[in-house]
Design a protein that fits this description.
It comes from Pseudonocardia sulfidoxydans NBRC 16205. This protein has about 475 residues and is an alpha+beta fold. Helices cover about 45% and strands about 15% of the residues. It is built from 17 helices and 14 strands.
Length: about 475
């Protein structure tokens, strides 16, 4: 615990904070709490307990600010710095605990977010690396829910203890998680791994996060005395790829093996081009990045590339839809390989894809097979690219070649395929527009995005600060 001449434990009891660290110059604590950077209002708390804790926190912060006033001695100011750091660590723990509780309840997933990192970034105005750091901490030092719904203890219990008592900062927790998630640590047996976690937690008081990382990597390498296992004998040369569709749900599974180095290198080069992190704070696991890169590459080839003909025709996506659903403006459909589509996914696919609509009668008899048409012509797509320069979502830097074009006013509802009704979005943000309560609109010819009320009660529109060069 940090040495301090007086206690700030009341600050850590029941307070939910936004995670902002500094008060604007010349403003008091009430400004910090009532005007967070995200623009959402906390002046109307939904729970009396939170409202009371917030008022107590404001009073405590006012007291701390007063303690550093003109009459403060040097000793007072030094003590104030220690208390301020202790308070920050206590608030970090509350944010992590609250994030873990929301994850256990599935709150972020219910609101359409695949990852809590994106939800925290949008809700609190954090950079993604800030959000990711807290998500990693929540998954490491808090209880989690298993696949069967059972509550599991913290993965790093010793680290959880030193984080709870203020000995370890959030950065210490992040470093310990990175060390124990390394390839070297993955080779340790469970007992040795747990012992390493205990030793790392015990050093938080003595080391800065950077020092702890260096020391920790030396520790796990020392514990992994045998190193990586020897390579097995070379297998029989095999090149194979299997695609199987899930029987009980949409989607499918791809499994492959390439012993031919040249074939594997060609595939790896394609994946490497698209599976790299979008920025240093991209938190997607490597398997997810690779899976999405492969799908993106296939989508690009389908829409703009050249493929061998299959049965005398170029391969395209075939969307099968019942006549009744077509008359109801496409309530449901299914893909030739991928299975059933929800209405929102179908609308997303129809935004910027070459598809063959196949209409079926109520008994499943094909009534009509439509011709292939490209909703957004290449020339118009180039105009959208010049204007948006890639994904138009505020804070996203996905390049145009990996983006799709979305109709702001949906095409099937009469929206025109023209520049003033189109916006360029990457796959992740295109999905958010179609599957969550985010909205997009055009203002003076430029797109802006309206967050759902749970992220911003005022629903203040967001847009990219300045046009980026194409």
């Amino acid at each position: 615990m940090l040495a301090t001449p007086f206690s700030v434990s009341t600050l850590a009891d029941g307070v939910v904070a936004s995670g902002h660290d500094a008060t604007p110059e010349g403003s008091g604590p009430s400004v910090l709490l009532s005007r967070p950077a995200t623009g959402h209002s906390v002046d109307q708390p939904t729970d009396d307990t939170v409202a009371t804790a917030r008022a107590d926190l404001a009073a405590a912060l006012a007291g701390l600010r007063a303690a550093g006033g003109q009459g403060a001695t040097e000793s007072d100011l030094v003590a104030l710095l220690v208390v301020a750091e202790e308070t920050r660590r206590a608030l970090d723990r509350i944010v992590v605990d609250t994030t873990a509780a929301l994850q256990r309840r599935g709150t972020f997933a219910e609101r359409g977010y695949r990852s809590p990192t994106g939800a925290l970034s949008d809700l609190l105005g954090w950079e993604r690396f800030e959000a990711r750091r807290r998500v990693v901490a929540a998954e490491s030092v808090c209880e989690t829910v298993g696949l069967g719904g059972e509550v599991l203890p913290a993965r790093m219990p010793s680290t959880a203890m030193v984080f709870a008592d203020g000995t370890a900062s959030l950065r210490h927790v992040d470093v310990i998680a990175r060390v124990l998630n390394s390839a070297v640590a993955a080779r340790l047996d469970p007992e040795t791994w747990a012992g390493a976690e205990v030793q790392l937690a015990a050093q938080c008081a003595a080391f800065t996060p950077t020092q702890l990382h260096t020391w920790g990597m030396e520790l796990v390498e020392l514990l992994d005395q045998d190193g990586a296992g020897p390579e097995d004998d070379a297998p029989v040369q095999t090149n194979e790829l299997r695609l199987s569709r899930f029987r009980a749900r949409p989607g499918g599974k791809i499994a492959g093996r390439y012993d031919d180095a040249a074939l594997f290198a060609a595939i790896a080069a394609v994946l490497d081009a698209g599976a790299g992190p979008r920025d240093p704070d991209d938190d997607r696991p490597v398997p997810q990045r690779q899976a999405e890169a492969l799908a993106d590459a296939c989508n690009q080839v389908l829409s703009r590339g050249k493929l061998p003909e299959t049965g005398g025709r170029r391969p395209q996506l075939v969307v099968t839809i019942r006549l009744e659903d077509l008359e109801r403006r496409a309530a449901a459909a299914s893909l030739e390989f991928g299975g059933p589509l929800s209405a929102s996914t179908l609308r997303q696919l129809a935004c910027d894809a070459a598809v063959v609509p196949m209409v079926l009668s109520s008994t499943g008899v094909p009534l009509d097979v439509g011709r292939i048409s490209r909703t957004v012509p290449d020339g118009l797509r180039r105009a959208v690219t010049v204007r948006d320069g890639g994904c138009a979502w505020a804070g996203c830097d996905r390049l145009p070649s990996w983006c799709e074009v979305h109709h702001v006013h949906e095409w099937q509802h009469g929206g025109a395929t023209e520049l003033g009704n189109l916006v360029m979005l990457c796959g992740e943000h295109h999905r958010l527009i179609h599957h969550t309560h985010w909205e997009v609109r055009m203002v003076h010819g430029l797109p802006e995005f309206i967050p759902p009320s749970w992220i911003d009660r005022t629903r203040t529109p967001r847009r990219r600060p300045a046009a980026r060069a194409s």
